[in-house]
Amino acid sequence: MQELKPIYTVSTDCQDCYKCLRECPVKAVKVSSGSASVVHELCISCGHCLNVCPQGAKRYRSDVQLASNTISKYKAMGRKVAASIAPSFISEFSDLPVSSFIKAVKMLGFDIVSETALGAEQVSAATVKYLQQEKPDVCISSACPVMVEFIKKYYPSQAGRIAPMFSPLLVHCRMLKQIYGEDAAVVFIGPCAGKKLEADSNPDLLNASITFEELRGWLDAEGITPRHLPENMERFSPNRASNGALYPVEGGMLSGIKHGCSSVESSYASFSGIENVRKVLEDLENNEPPSPLFLELLACEGGCINGPLVSDKKKLLSGRANVLNYANYRKDNITDSPEVETRGEYRIEPVIPAEHRPSQIKKALEKVGKYSTEDELNCGCCGYDTCRNFANAMLSGKAEPSMCVGNMRKIAASKLDSVISALPCGIIIADSGSRVVESNRKFAELMGEDNLAVYQSCGGLNGASLEKVVPFDYYFKQVIEKENGFIEKEMSSETGVLNVQIFTIEKNQLVGCIAQDITEPAVEKEQIISKAQEVMDQNLDTVKKIAHLLGENAAASEDILNSIIKNSKKTGVKK
Question: In this protein, which residues make up the domain named 4Fe-4S (predicted)?
Fold first, then answer.
């Protein structure tokens, strides 16, 4: 078994945005030191995180080298190497003649190119026999390895309802070994991350699993261009598949099952997408179906043609049409495949959630500033549906307090207020609507007794109209429209002569102003800069963490402080 798991995280690329955690259907993600890693014991290898990670930090393991080494090793021993091709290949490589595709794969060194759909047909036939003989109340298809993993781990009470057959891929592996020798090697090629997990779990049957993307890269590396290959007489071995080719689309398995089960009174239903399947399983947990029921459950919405590793996610409709047309076209001249053993047992390994005492949860919530149910916003920004689920994750070591964006916003506001209040010069910040966003007491003092009175009675000037606070608001409007706008003026006020510096913090969004009374004998420019730098240094780590977590629009804290220091240094104060 390989040491590197099918899905993993490149920690240096992770920007702790928690999108993978928000999107993961089973929360198989642990955040530590700001990096989100996959918890493999919880993971079902659905591959969804591969598609949603904006930084590409979630990767799937490349098995091209393993496949290539397998070919070299087995050929040196005089053994056959077969490629098991997922039926969704016709959607992925719809621009290629089938014979050219087969030829290209063989040019990589494969002796046999066969359709996984042959294994699917064996599974369908075995499922029909099982339904006829055993007559289960509910039977869940075993075709999707991700769904099997999902049920085993998170709905173990329903695991006994999974049809007792191996997946189509593993049955196909058995078939290929039965035909070409038990010592033959098999490499799967398809769109599914879950198949890599199957290869790891069944090394005696499946030597490696690579994706269509890996196949394209491998062909490119070998200088093989399938579209330039002429049509030829290459065919799938040992024969074509028929209705098994429908498996990659939602409802595809049912078409074969229904045909074989015409004498069995049973209901049939197909559901795709993990959240839809979750609802079905929850329903089964609480209610018994009114009649015998067969369920086709697929992890990917629409089926395997919409797998996590298909090259074009926009081809769902055309991909389905390609599969249906291809399957229908091949109904003639189909020969029967040899029967093969399909039975397989599944070891149930349920995920048992950790239980924490109410007092522990209460303390965990208090760590993120939540002291009552009113404080529990359940906003989901941390990646968990509720604040209590987040608290449970913290107690289980899967989450960190800094993931709570609401609490970090409070800290950001508090830090910004503390830093600005500590500066020995007047500070005011306004938005594009000429409303005060932040200010300190010193600025109110410099603007006169009326402003100071308002500041004291209201606890600040926030929300006030800029034109009512300062007599030079028109300078703010000039500066905010520029990328690095800056204006310095000296002007009279009720308290003395002011040196005023107005500068852009965020173009068209925020503008700042530093004001100081240059007639005060104790004022020293160096003191102001030194004090600003001191409070900045004291709070830098927290401010940077807040800025990183909240993103550009909410990360004004660091920008504001840096702007204050930079613009304080631009010019000296006249004595």
Answer: 360-421
- Mention every residue, 6+ apart, whose C-beta is less than 8 A from residue 388: 361, 365, 376
| Model-wide pTM > 0.85 | no
Neighbour count for residue 429 (Cβ, 10 Å): 23
Whole-angstrom CA distances from 331 to 65, 236, 245, 249, 252 are 36, 14, 10, 17, 15
Question: Which residue is it, tokens 């906003």?
Answer: 379
Asked whether the beta carbons of 568 and 535 are under 8 A apart, the reply is no
Measured CA to CA, the distance from residue 23 to residue 371 in angstroms comes to 28
Tell me what pLDDT residue 322 has. 85
The predicted-structure confidence for 402-419, as pLDDT tens digits, reads as follows 999 889 888 877 777 787
Q: Model confidence over 43-73: pLDDT tens digits?
A: 999 999 999 999 999 999 999 999 999 999 9
Of residues 537, 546, 448, 535, the one with CA closest to residue 498 = 448
* Strand boundaries in 397-543, DSSP class E: 426-431, 436-439, 486-492, 497-506, 510-517
Pick the CATH number of 407-569 from 3.30.310.50, 3.30.450.20, 1.10.760.10, 3.40.50.1370: 3.30.450.20
Assess contact for 210 and 188: CB atoms under 8 A: yes
List C-alpha distances in Å: 211 to 187, 194, 217, 259, 305: 10, 11, 10, 32, 13
Q: What is the DSSP letter of 140?
A: E
C-alpha atoms less than 13 angstroms from C-alpha of 99 in its C-beta half-sphere: 7
